[in-house]
């Protein structure tokens, strides 16, 4: 999977609109401590639908919105867009590029878009499931993560391997199908109760 572009505006320390173009190969980000290098990885994780504020190094989700500085007032919205090359057709979409966007307002309102079309968080998750780019995937390895993987329990490590192998999507769909079956069974029981009351 080739990440082509990351556009950040109002996310953490990135108050101004910032466009990062990634060329094929390896990209290094260098800068002094606290200059915002890790915030770039956080932005990628966030746009992929990360819901854990802890893994985004914040206390509440609102903390991802630029909180102001000596010279600038806080912003009301954070927006991140990640563009991925789709010329190999890794995503089942008829586009050569796929852009995922996430927005969050201080009011708590949030939007997800795929190629500028509003969608649900679920759609973003499903799009990335099994591409190896998932928010739980091994593609973003934060500080301390290597130790964590090495000392992970066998079943946690197996989760990583399963995502890499591409079976997480099916496991997820199976869980959803089982849940729907259970709901339907519960409805059937309720219906037969009503029928026996009526007859
Ligand atoms: P290190 O090398 O120490 O890991 P880094 O370059 O990875 O540093 P980051 O952790 O990415 O730095 O950035 C931290 C900076 O981002 C801090 O200066 C912090 O004040 C700023 N920051 C984080 N959240 C916000 C926010 N919501 N609004 C404004 N600035 C923020």
TrEMBL record:
It is found in: Cytoplasm. ATP binds at residues 32-39. Transmembrane segments: none annotated. Residues 167-199 form a coiled coil. Homodimer. Required for chromosome condensation and partitioning. Contains large globular domains required for ATP hydrolysis at each terminus and a third globular domain forming a flexible hinge near the middle of the molecule. These domains are separated by coiled-coil structures. Belongs to the SMC family. This is Chromosome partition protein Smc. The gene is smc.
């Amino acid at each position: 999977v080739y990440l082509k572009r990351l556009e950040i505006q109002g996310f953490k320390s990135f108050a101004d609109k910032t466009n990062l173009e990634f060329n094929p190969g390896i990209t290094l980000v260098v800068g002094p401590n606290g200059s915002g290098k890790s915030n770039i990885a956080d932005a990628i994780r966030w746009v992929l639908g990360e819901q854990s504020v802890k893994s985004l190094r914040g206390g509440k989700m609102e903390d991802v919105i630029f909180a102001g500085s000596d010279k600038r007032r806080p912003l009301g919205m954070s927006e991140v867009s990640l563009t991925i090359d789709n010329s190999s057709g890794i995503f089942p979409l008829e586009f050569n590029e796929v852009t995922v966007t996430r927005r969050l307002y201080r009011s708590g309102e949030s939007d997800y878009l795929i190629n500028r079309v509003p969608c649900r968080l679920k759609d973003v998750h499903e799009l990335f499931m099994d591409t190896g780019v998932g928010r739980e995937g091994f593609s973003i390895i934060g500080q301390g993560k290597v130790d964590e993987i090495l000392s992970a329990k066998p079943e946690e490590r197996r989760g990583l391997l399963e995502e890499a192998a591409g079976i997480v999507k099916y496991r997820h769909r199976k869980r959803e199908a089982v849940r729907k079956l259970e709901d339907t069974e519960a409805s059937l029981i309720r219906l037969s109760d009503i029928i026996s009351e009526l007859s």
